[in-house]
Fold this sequence. Notes:
This protein has helices at 42-55, 106-113, 130-136, 143-146, 174-183, 217-228, 259-266, 314-325, 370-383, 397-403, 406-419, 428-431, and strands at 12-13, 35-37, 59-62, 78-81, 88-92, 97-101, 118-119, 153-159, 165-169, 189-196, 198-199, 202-212, 233-242, 245-254, 275-284, 304-310, 331-336, 358-364. With 442 residues, the protein is an alpha+beta fold. Strand 8 and strand 9 (165-169) form a beta hairpin.
Amino acid sequence: MITLPESLSGRLVTPGDRRYATLRSTYTTRHSPAEVLLPQTSRQVVDAVRYARERGLPVAVRSGGHGLAGTSSNDGGLVIDLSALNRVDVLDERSRLVRVEAGARWAEVAKALAPYGLAISSGDHGNVGVGGLATGGGVGWLVRRFGLTIDRVRAVEVVLADGTLIRADAEHEPELFWVVRGAGAGAGVVVAFEIEAEEIRNVGLAQLAVEATPDGAPVRQWAEYLAQAPRELSSAAVLFPYGRSIVMQITAVVAAESMRRARPLIEPLLAIGRLLEQRTDLVPYPALVPTSHLHANVGQQPSLTTNGLLTMDDTAARAIMRAAAGPERALVQLRSVGGAVNDVAPTATAYPHRHQDTLAVGSVFPPLGGPALDAAWRGVATRSDGAYVNFESRPDRAAFDRIYPGETGRRVAELWQRYDPDGVFRPALLDGRRDRTGDRRR
């Protein structure tokens, strides 16, 4: 008879519990796990991992539940939900070192750090959990100035599959520290991060819409300007159908404390296409990831998503426009990278993509499925030479090879095997056992 550890008494949720409805699923996928555990401390996570192994059920680990692959829950298995591990502590104001627990949401992090005049470049939505993003990469609103979230991680606390709790940094357990920055999902449960925050209170924020032409000129001009603009400027864009044409909605963020500094960096964006609308403000950093974003994830946004990292040119820009305007009408999102991201050596972390300037993301929604996404994305895929794990909803070996190419992939697979020899946490990326679409296996 397997009994629940005393430390987890009252922390187990099963079907029929009133809490189950808001804990069963992820943002993109409805699930029906047999059990959900809600540990509140690192030691309780240790007990949860040991209990999960004793139960012999498939294990999923969830921080925020925004992962597009839906793998932070499961059907018939056990979910270790980290949402109660959500402390945010400033360890040292002078060095700006912050300890953030994996279950915190980025809106909560921004709110907690604002009184200190600090911020961490994270994702672009306040409801995203710290754990999943900060082990995969982190392409945030300040990415060109401060790099990926993982580039600012200075130490981690990890519960391994055997229940061992380890603190890893550049000098202690350096191999574990390497793999959790970019490929953490297969190594263990990261319960806390020590992150070097940045001193920033306000940012310049511009939101504008331009008409995107079939030749891709505005897309190419946007990327070309970002590639050579001062690093204080980061940007994202979304391509929307607009009658028979496409609108490019651009958000630009300037890491500057005044509009006098922000406006000159934003103005060139107003000239990249026929301007339809614009607004520019100076806002506190938390306004980018506000607490109003916080919500339960109950499978409310079914979708399929893929992505590619690329260096923009005319051919890539035209392929992106075909993906957005073609018969499948994929939703296409673009994010600037480069800048500080590319200062980091490709071998320094398990995120090796350190030369591209653009992250392109494509999504389709029901009733469209995998074949439609593949058809829409074919041209973009041929121009991409890398991918980002957090924007891939169909994990399989082909995706693994794009996300962790060459020597990086060999090292990631080796370390996943070393730290989790029984595959308790091993992502489907490595063995292709999961097929969300029902359309095909790659």
